Amino acid sequence: MNWADIVFPSAIVCGLFGIILAVGVGFSYLWLVWLNKQATKCPECGKPGAGELVEGKLIDSRSHWERKTQGNIFHRDESPVQVTKETYEDHFECQYCGHQWTRTAQLTKTIPKKRDKNSPDQRRKGRNLL
């Protein structure tokens, strides 16, 4: 058995994997371009990708704390998370017919609360209750 018996089949497998990866990345890129064109489609003339963002602004932002339960059936953890809901208003103008329209979008962010190592919850976790 010489080195060519190992290198050539490995090169073929790597080449096929590279082709499959390139095709997947290419299709993903084209799909994202299509989604962007559909998202900026003019409601008046119907041309995809015609909407140009003129102005985008934050119109509302609200934050509150929630308890998020996570874990499995053996261990459940209820940790507080900060939930921020932001509402944006975007103004678009069609590049072809000049029609102007407004779209609102809401973005929700969750940020886990950092716990203090000396809090009662953290000290309780260190104890063995059996």
Q: What do these coordinates show?
A:
With 130 residues, this protein is of the alpha+beta class. Helix content is 32%, strand content 41%. The protein contains two helices and three strands, in the order αβββα. It has helices at residues 4-39, 120-125, and strands spanning 51-71, 76-94, 100-112. The protein has a three-stranded antiparallel beta sheet, with no helix packed on it. A hairpin with a 4-residue loop joins strand 1 and strand 2 (76-94). The longest helix is centred in the first third of the chain and has 36 residues, at 4-39. The chain starts with a helix and ends in a 5-residue tail after the last helix. The relative contact order is 0.13. The model is unreliable at 126-130 (pLDDT under 50).
Shape: flat
Radius of gyration, whole Å: 26 Å
**Strand segment tally:** 3
Query: In sequence order, what are the helices and strands, one letter per element?
Result: HEEEH
**Structural class by secondary-structure content:** alpha+beta
Main sheet summary = 3 strands, antiparallel
Question: Into which percent range does the helicity of residues fall?
Answer: 25-40%
Number of helices: 2
Q: How do the strands of the widest beta sheet line up side by side? A: 1-2-3
Uncertain residue segments: 126-130
What is the average per-residue confidence, as pLDDT, rounded to a whole number?
83
N-to-C terminal Cα separation, in Å? 61 Å
